Backbone:
């Protein structure tokens, strides 16, 4: 097992999270759920995560970022910071999908473990991120973190995921799942709280990409926004 020293950045939602890993071991984790604070906190968290481990930025072997989907502003801040570090330190840039990371993190949740033990391979994991109104960003993953259905922006109603729920038990989680509970009432639908995006969930997926040298182009890499950013105009009158 490689002992690569990798910095992980997660800013796709309101959570600002930075972790440092050596091989598959987490050395430090700094995160906050304070809304709209990424621009203020991220650089501080990077310095703290590295300092807490006893290493320095110059010793990093790579930097990784959660690429989305998620908040346009949050993703832009995280990716810009990761690209800046990769360029300045002349180290590889790695990226993993936000929903993929959440699915991997859910595997350690006690309720998911219980469902997996009783249901087995028929259980699918569906991380959801709120995309406003009754829309969510969602993806379906198997218990070995293989993509079962592509990530998409889904409008939720009573018939959403009907075909999947007819043949599989599905565990829904993430900040978009709460508003779906009253509509997705199929007996095969399970809802679990307490699974949020975290840089700690990136460690194993990122290490796999590092070992396979699946590096991103620092100059041209962009976040996976999934939907175009739409700017809104203030309705307040300006003198």
Residues:
């Amino acid at each position: 097992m490689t002992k690569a020293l990798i910095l992980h950045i997660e800013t796709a939602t309101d959570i600002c999270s930075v972790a440092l890993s050596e091989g598959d071991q987490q050395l430090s984790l700094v995160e906050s759920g304070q809304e709209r604070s990424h621009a203020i906190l991220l650089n501080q968290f990077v310095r703290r995560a590295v300092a807490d481990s006893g290493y320095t930025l110059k010793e990093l072997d790579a930097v990784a970022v959660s690429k989305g989907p998620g908040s346009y502003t949050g993703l832009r801040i995280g990716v810009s910071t990761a690209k800046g570090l990769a360029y300045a330190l002349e180290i590889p840039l790695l990226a993993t999908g936000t929903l993929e990371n959440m699915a991997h993190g859910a595997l350690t949740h006690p309720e998911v473990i219980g469902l997996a033990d009783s249901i087995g391979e028929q259980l699918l994991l569906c991380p959801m991120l709120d995309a406003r109104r009754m829309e969510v960003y969602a993806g379906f993953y198997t218990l070995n973190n293989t993509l079962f259905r592509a990530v998409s922006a889904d409008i939720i109603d009573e018939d959403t995921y009907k075909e999947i729920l007819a043949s599989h038990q599905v565990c829904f989680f993430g900040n978009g799942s709460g508003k779906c509970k009253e509509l997705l009432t199929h007996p095969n639908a399970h809802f679990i709280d307490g699974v949020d995006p975290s840089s700690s969930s990136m460690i194993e997926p990122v290490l796999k990409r590092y070992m396979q040298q699946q590096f991103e182009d620092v100059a041209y890499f962009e976040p996976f926004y999934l939907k175009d950013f739409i700017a809104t105009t203030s309705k307040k009158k300006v003198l």
Remarks:
- The chain has two domains: 5-98+197-211, 110-191.
- The helical segments are 38-53, 72-89, 98-106, 110-119, 162-167, 203-211.
- Confidence is low (pLDDT under 50) at residues 229-239.
- The beta strands are 5-10, 16-22, 25-32, 62-66, 93-96, 123-130, 135-141, 147-155, 169-173, 189-191.
